[in-house]
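Risk register update: the risk that structure generation would not scale has been downgraded. Supporting records follow, first protein first.
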Amino acid sequence: MAVNSSVDPVDIGSLRTLVLVYDLQSFSAAAKRLDVNQSTISYTIERLRGVLRDPLFVRQGNGVSATERCTALVAWARDMIGEMEGLAAPAEFDPAIAQGTVTISCNYHERQTLIPQFCARLRAGAPRAKLVLLDAAGHGNIHLKQNQCDIVLGPVGVVGESFYRRHILTDHYVCIMDPANPLARGRITLSAYARAEHVFVTHSGEWQPLYLDVLKARDIEIEPAVSLPNHDSLERIIAGTRLVATIPHHLARAMRGGLHVASLPFRVPISIDMYWSARTAKSGLHKWARGLLAEVAKEYAA
């Protein structure tokens, strides 16, 4: 005789939908992400509501807000999905025949320093795997929590029981300037640095460089002469001027424009960390890719 259970309709696909709606706080956004009709999302959530005997989500403005029980269920569902994906992964991983996609959210710093060598190693070791890069721009933690990426790389912080962290590189800030700049003639003092003509890289207003907080703690306010959304035109803008930019040391090393690199009159470390979630924690491809990233970072720092 068949035994009917009230939890029979709860499958991995339904749990994925639940987590996605929770992360995006929107039925329509979840439908767009999964490339399905919104009615499909609504049907899945309505089915879960009946099984779990909880509203799960309530309308709030243009989106939805999770109930207390839904929040607890999502935490459990993330772990369950990760466990199931781990069980589905091959017992022995062979990168040479592996297929899949590794999506990394990172900034210009990582794309100029670590990613080129990582990409070359990935293509050589796992030629069937695909690499996708997202511009973090202050949103790396959101990319990871909304399952838009597999790895977040950079000076970010991702908090939660379902997320993992590995430190892979420590950088620090330096000054770059035209070799004819008077500040390039010797050691830069703090007062001379404060009076300099600064270029700020604003990351489109989404992230503030760490060194600005250190200066504020010393009651030093510097105003930008030029503000840029990112680093991509920095070398050409500084050349032939008295402008000074404060950027990570490894990024300055990667530049080819012949700019002068000088030490700052203060030191600010930059911790480059790698974050991932329970969703890919046991995936053979992603474990291999994380190890490869760590190897590249170790060699780069040597």
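Supporting record for the second protein:
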Amino acid sequence: MKTLEPFILITPVLLILAVGIIVFVLLYQRRMLQHQDQVRYLHDLKQRQLLEATFQAQEEERRRVARDLHDEVGAMLALVKLNLHQLINNAAVKDEGLLTAGYNIKQQLDDVLSSVRRISHDLMPVVLEKMGLAQALEALRRSFMSTGLLRITVKYNEKNRRLQAKHELLLFRMVQELLNNTLKHAQASEVTLDLFFGEDRTELIYMDNGKGFDLGSLQNRQNTEGGLGIMSLQSRAALMGGDITITSAPGKGTKAEITLPVANA
């Protein structure tokens, strides 16, 4: 029995030591996981701040260009148009060919002025700031209708519902980007925009009747070539705490569903 006494005494010590080591390892792993979570959170926060700063800089630049177009380029073109009008109506001008050319140039100036106003409004959507997303989409529809490029249908369940200003702007920019992609690549003739304000979410559905595309191939190509189309849309959705789902297939058109929880709206 005396020979077993040392073992009897050592065994509890070893057990306590083993338990201590296990507890230490578990606590260490927990601390490491917490540290990794914190690093991941800080990384995501930094990425979000960088995205917000990037988009904010883009908006400031758009506002500057819109003001320059409206206040300077627009004013100069209006002055040229006025001078041309006076020249055409000058009683001393009798040359029919010159008068015809003058009227044609005046019409071209009218078209250019309309384009300048449209571009200026697209860069800095005053209707969006004053009246909200639904009415801004209606104004966008009218703008495209005058060009004859696309037939756009806009649907909404509440005309005067407002979201946070920055979220309205992000959603509006996403629609502009989707329209730009449709014009450049889809060969579509019709686009439908369906804006739904619900109790728990805001949903914006964009659909075109274009030629569609293979989504997987496009994403792989953008990842390898550095394309920003879908990534930009996803980044804007993430900034709102929302989500975007894009579905498409060759010959089937394209559909984009943007969802924004009411808590973030």
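The chain has a mean pLDDT of 80. On this basis the risk owner (M.S.) recommends closing the item.
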